[in-house]
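Agenda item 2: zinc ion complex prediction
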Amino acid sequence: MKRPAVFVDRDGTINEDVGYLARPSQLRLIAGAAEAIARLNQHGVPVVVVTNQAGVARGLFAESAIGNVHARLDKLLARHGACVDRYDYCPHHPRDGQGAYQIDCECRKPRPGMLLRVAEELGLDLARSYMIGDKLTDLEAGAHAGCRTILVRSGYGAQAATTLAPGAYNVAGVFDSLLPAIEFCLPRLTGQRQAPPPWHAVRAMPGVSPAPRQSPRRRGG
Ligand SMILES: [Mg+2]
Ligand SMILES: [Zn+2]
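Presented output:
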């Protein structure tokens, strides 16, 4: 069965947006971001970082710099017991750019290409997944992919929140930062995991006495 995931923008959502972050030493985690990712890890929810890095197309830094930054980010997160399951990035730009990087690609947000290809690789259920970011283009990419979306007010989010129309981009909520956003969506992501196993599955296991039958679900009444 396909699993839901949380797709997370990087700059302005996990780490401070310093504009074309190219050096690992520029990385500063936003308060609570590592704890938020650790919470998802603890519940087995895949964490996928999807980030536009047009600085590559613009010749501001090499594509290899992105890997160095993510290696540093992994170290900072590991101090808090947090781990990103998968990174994806778009190094392209439709107009500015050099050589192969100047392309009207499908992966640059607000297009959903990064979400779609990671979902394919990891077997993710997009309809039950969330996309969280600080720009409306993050939400737009998430909505195009069929995800629910959340805007955070960190980074450019406070400004973006003033122009977000209610109900636009499948938005489920606006929160101050990643941690409260994850606290909101985690119970919705793990609701099924807390359900007891199907009755027939319990009964079929030899040597295991069935658990008492659960009373009917209280929700949905
Ligand atoms: Mg951002
Ligand atoms: Zn791209």
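Discussion summary: The chain has one domain: 6-194.
Owner for follow-up: CH.
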